């Protein structure tokens, strides 16, 4: 027989369990799918009729009332909370409950949210069903002209934000019903101007791969006097970059006198928005000056269902973007904008993702370009995949020890302070999407570099939960996309075509440790036989993305890509242009 104390204990435990069960059931986040919800049809357009919905449902909780929660999710210290679940064939008019099973960031689970007042919002990032050319059927979020950003992608559904209170048990004080009543509107088309113009073509190669029409585009900065000199033919400088349908760093008017100064957390500068406008206007003044060389700057747009950029190479998961750019887009650009159209008159430059692309395009298509200016490139040697050796390390998240594991940093400031860990970055991506569908950095590296996995999506290089590296996949990366390894394997054939063309710049204190891979690349280039005649330079105390200017800090030099490599490019043209080359029509 139970004692009185035991009876009270059992009663208390029963009450606690009952209360927890009632809380789990009664205090929840319920997201209502509209009765008229329409799925995405081919090409990212909304279907004509309601139907089953696929996508990533994101619940957002923010304790900062200054902006909508969907605009406050990032890798930074001030990020707000995100919880994600995948919808696969959800019925219009149905209700979806978001609970502790949702992938979470930066918390481990929804129940870990501290007590307090929050603004709540939900966003549904819609997926389209792709019937791939090879027979695969996969579901992805197509780019809809926004550069693969879920929080502004046209057609995505979202709720109006409102305030709630989270109690001490980590749950809302009352049931929270969220209605996806809003839809992100289409993006207004941008008109061409005197200097900034656009071109868009359908790619037969990519259309065949993806099983639906796929388009490539480019934004072109044309030289002063372009229309007044119809007989001139111009050198072309391919600016590899993330998705961008304009040239914000080019401005034909002085800075806005009514501009309210902001503060750049990255560069610790007050009024950085005004600095940007000032430098953009200076670029315009340089661009139209009498003695400045006339050339085309081409910024390609290859946003895709995995990321805001394709990485400009052929890929098992993304398709033949390299060939499509080189054989379809660039010839179309050169024809429309009167480029010289020969390898000696084409150059590459870019930073970060663009830096990797600049080097990859020069290495994979060595005859197509006459030089690559490679700033702060993404890992060019996977022995230093940021700070991970994917060939030797067992785990991407931890450095093993005898009695404990040390967290691997993923991002740092220039003084070496860790800003986020490898595990944290991948937790962020896992909240945004499963199967490599986050639209973020590690998932696009995986999509570009990996073979197709058994489920039809990119084969994981490491487990998102544990960090365990798959060395079979790592070997595939080594054979196909490790740029240093490719140079090592093929140097006897590549050296005559790359001699003097590689210029690599990175900060010693790059935010993502990208200098580590450049050290390994430099070791090869300096020992190469025959010699590479390459340039490798480092910026002392320089974080991401130092681009080779020793006279200015990053905050300024990053605004001068269009002009900073011009002297070296002009020198290269003088040294290598064929005797009968056109080196005068564009020097008006």
Protein described:
There is one protein chain. With about 600 residues, the protein is α+β, with helices and mostly antiparallel strands. Helix 5 crosses helix 9 (about 485-500). It contains 13 helices and 28 strands. It has three domains: about 30-185, no CATH class; about 195-380 and about 485-575, Rossmann fold; about 385-480, no CATH class. The protein is globular, with a radius of gyration of 26 Å. It has an eight-stranded mixed β-sheet. The longest helix has 23 residues, at about 5-25.
Task: Describe the structure in brief.
With 588 residues, the protein is of the alpha+beta class.
> How much helical structure, as a percent, in the residues?
25-40%
Report the biggest beta sheet as strand number plus sense, adding barrel if it closes: 8 strands, mixed
User: How many helical stretches?
Assistant: 13
Q: Tally the structural domains.
A: 3
Q: What's the CATH class of the largest domain, please?
A: Alpha Beta
Return Rg in Å: 26 Å
Query: What does the average pLDDT come to?
Result: 93
**Low confidence ranges:** 1-26
CATH architecture assignment of the largest domain: 3-Layer(aba) Sandwich
* Tally of DSSP β-strands: 28
How far is it from the N-terminal to the C-terminal residue, by CA? 104 Å
């Amino acid at each position: 027989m139970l004692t009185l104390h035991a009876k009270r204990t059992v009663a208390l435990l029963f009450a606690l369990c009952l209360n927890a069960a009632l809380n789990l059931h009664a205090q929840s986040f319920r997201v209502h799918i509209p009765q008229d919800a329409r799925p995405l049809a081919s090409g990212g357009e909304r279907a004509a009729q309601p139907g089953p919905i696929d996508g990533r449902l994101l619940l957002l909780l923010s304790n900062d009332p200054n902006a909508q929660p969907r605009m406050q999710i990032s890798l930074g210290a001030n990020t707000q909370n995100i919880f994600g679940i995948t919808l696969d064939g959800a019925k219009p008019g149905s209700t979806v409950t978001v609970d502790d099973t949702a992938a979470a960031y930066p918390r481990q689970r929804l129940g870990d949210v501290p007590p307090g007042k929050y603004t709540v919002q939900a966003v549904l990032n819609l997926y389209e069903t792709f019937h791939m050319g090879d027979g695969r059927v996969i579901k992805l979020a197509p780019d809809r002209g926004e550069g693969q950003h879920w929080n502004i992608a046209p057609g995505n559904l979202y709720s109006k934000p409102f305030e709630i209170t989270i109690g001490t048990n980590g749950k809302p004080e009352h049931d929270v019903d969220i209605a996806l009543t809003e839809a992100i509107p289409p993006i207004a088309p941008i008109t061409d101007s005197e200097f900034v113009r656009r071109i868009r073509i359908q790619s037969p190669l990519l259309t065949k791969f993806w099983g639906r029409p796929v388009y490539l585009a480019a934004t072109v900065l044309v030289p002063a006097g372009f229309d007044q000199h119809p007989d001139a033919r111009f050198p072309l400088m391919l600016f590899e970059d993330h998705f961008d349908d304009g040239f914000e760093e080019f401005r034909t008017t002085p800075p806005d006198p009514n501009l309210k100064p902001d503060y750049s957390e990255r560069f610790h500068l007050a009024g950085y928005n005004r600095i940007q406008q000032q430098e953009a206007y200076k670029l315009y003044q340089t661009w139209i000056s009498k003695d400045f060389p006339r050339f085309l700057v081409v910024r390609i747009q290859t946003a895709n269902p995995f990321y805001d950029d394709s990485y400009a190479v052929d890929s098992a998961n993304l398709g033949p973007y390299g060939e499509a750019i080189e054989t379809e887009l660039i010839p179309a650009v050169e024809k429309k904008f009167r480029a010289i159209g020969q390898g000696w008159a084409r150059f590459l430059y870019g930073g970060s993702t663009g830096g990797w692309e600049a080097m990859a395009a020069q290495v994979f298509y060595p005859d197509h370009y006459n030089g690559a200016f490679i700033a702060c490139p993404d890992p060019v040697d996977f022995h230093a995949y940021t700070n991970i050796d994917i060939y030797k390390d067992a785990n991407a998240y931890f450095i093993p020890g005898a009695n404990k594991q040390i967290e691997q940093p993923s991002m740092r400031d220039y003084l070496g302070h860790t800003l986020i860990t490898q595990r944290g970055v991948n937790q962020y991506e896992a909240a945004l999407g499963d199967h490599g569908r986050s639209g973020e950095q590690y998932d696009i590296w995986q999509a570009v570099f990996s073979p197709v996995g058994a489920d039809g999506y990119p084969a994981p290089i490491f487990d998102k939960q544990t960090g365990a590296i798959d060395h079979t996949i790592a070997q595939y990366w080594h054979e196909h996309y490790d740029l240093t390894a490719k140079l090592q394997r093929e140097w006897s054939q590549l050296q005559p075509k790359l001699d003097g063309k590689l210029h690599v710049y990175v900060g010693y204190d790059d935010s993502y440790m990208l200098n580590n891979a450049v050290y390994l690349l430099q070791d090869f280039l300096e020992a190469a036989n025959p010699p590479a005649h390459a340039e490798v330079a480092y910026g002392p105390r320089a974080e991401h993305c130092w681009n080779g200017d020793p006279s200015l800090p990053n905050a300024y030099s990053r605004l001068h890509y269009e002009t900073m490599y011009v002297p070296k490019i002009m020198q290269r043209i003088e040294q290598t242009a064929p005797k009968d080359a056109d080196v005068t029509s564009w020097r008006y």
